[in-house]
Amino acid sequence: MALWGGRFTQAADARFKLLNDSLRFDYRFARQDIIGSIAWSKALVTVSVLTEQEQTNLEVALNALLAEVDANPTAMIDSDAEDIHSWVEQQLIAKVGDLGKKLHTGRSRNDQVATDLRLWCKAQINELIGHLTLLQQALVLTAESQQHVVMPGYTHLQRAQPITFAHWCLAYVEMLERDTSRLQDALNRMDYSPLGSGALAGTAYPMDRDQLANWLGFKGATRNSLDSVASRDHVLELLSTASISMIHLSRFAEDMIFFNSGEAGFIALSDRVTSGSSLMPQKKNPDALELIRGKCGRVQGALSGLMMTLKGLPLAYNKDMQEDKEGLFDALETWSDCLQMATLVLEDIRLNESRCEQAASQGYANATELADYLVAKGIPFREAHHIVGEAVVGAIAKGKALEALSLEELKAFSSVIEDDVYPILSLQSCLEKRSAKGGVSDKQMNNAILAAKTRLGLE
Ligand code: ARG
């Protein structure tokens, strides 16, 4: 039976009921709805709506229901209850009879759903931070074990300057760390309880909403009842954090797909995260990474979708807002799956060190070094840049690397070049010169790895 039958003389059309009911997705809030209901029953004692004994009876029944839900979290899906709030109330009444009908006093599904949603989001944030941390830890440990592997760094997907594989790993550690801090920011802002806001104007029972909020683990109660039931910007924040992080994961995936390509050959992905072709027997495709890259789209879609849904909604609650859930559920599940998959892919890679180093030493990645060398000999950088450009053209014509040109050949481009140029052109020297904070020198890398390990609780 619907919660609101009294006003109606006709039953809902089956097609409308199908469109309107949300139990098939908001069943995920069962735990939050029950915990919120227990807290609400305690608040009702403080305003003399329930006796202590009645509250105890309700709490016992709600706890029993919670145990049933924990044992079988999807059992309610086939019920014809409109939503999870109706289902919990139905179950409660089935357990304790008429007493259960008192629970909704002073409460609305509008503040109830807003509370359930925040509690659910808070729990998700903690889990997501856990998955972000595991991926960061895997990246740092990979960086540490592969610290000596030199590879080309790219701009415009052209070999630019040599870096280390570890440096690449730590770049993603940084991005994921900002994702984590965005989640923490979002959590801080959403950590206020809407319960006791009623339908929109506030509950008519003069309870201590801050105490109620504390019982539920919130920092405090929200300040304005209209805002409390009408706002979903905390969901937008969560979805935009998910979207940004999925962009990071998508770029990580794209880098790895390229590293794994026959053309680059820097890494080999394990059989556990690749698949074959039905036609071409030689193929081993990087599907896990392609899916991470591909799934980025649906997460951005959930964010745009909810933005469009909320835009132009009049205050306070409107049924449009029921649309806040499915995209959120899908987006957070997708994000969580992709974080875990990225960790798995990374933990299983094999690095081809000699191939990485070979690629780093080709492609004139040390041209900047030669320019800096000329600068040290007194030539202004812009001029040095031009000279080295010509030297690269000359070296390409001879099919040689810069360091493979003889001194005589090099002197043809600038007479200041001497024998001391060769050590400067070595890969190791290219790395070592990047010794300012954030650079790729050995010392900086050691510091960066140690600092990251400490931040991530690995030290
Ligand atoms: N299922 C609804 C939602 O998800 C719950 C709130 C219903 N409130 C209402 N006034 N109809 O938004």
From TrEMBL:
Pathway: Amino-acid biosynthesis; L-arginine biosynthesis; L-arginine from L-ornithine and carbamoyl phosphate: step 3/3. It catalyses: 2-(N(omega)-L-arginino)succinate = fumarate + L-arginine. This is Argininosuccinate lyase. The keyword DNA repair does not apply. Belongs to the lyase 1 family. Argininosuccinate lyase subfamily. It comes from the Bacteria. One of its GO terms (cellular component) is cytosol. Residues 364-432 form the Argininosuccinate lyase C-terminal domain. Its EC number is 4.3.2.1. Gene3D superfamilies: Fumarase/aspartase (C-terminal domain), Fumarase/aspartase (Central domain), Fumarase/aspartase (N-terminal domain). Coiled coil: none annotated. PANTHER family: ARGININOSUCCINATE LYASE. Pfam families: ASL_C2, Lyase_1. GO terms for biological process: L-arginine biosynthetic process via ornithine. Its main location: cytoplasm. Keywords: Amino-acid biosynthesis, Arginine biosynthesis, Cytoplasm, Lyase. It is an enzyme of class 4 (lyase). Residues 6-301 form the Fumarate lyase N-terminal domain. InterPro entries: Arg_succ_lyase_C, Argininosuccinate_lyase, Fumarase/histidase_N, Fumarate_lyase_CS, Fumarate_lyase_fam, Fumarate_lyase_N, L-Aspartase-like. One of its GO terms (molecular function) is argininosuccinate lyase activity. It is found in: Cytoplasm.
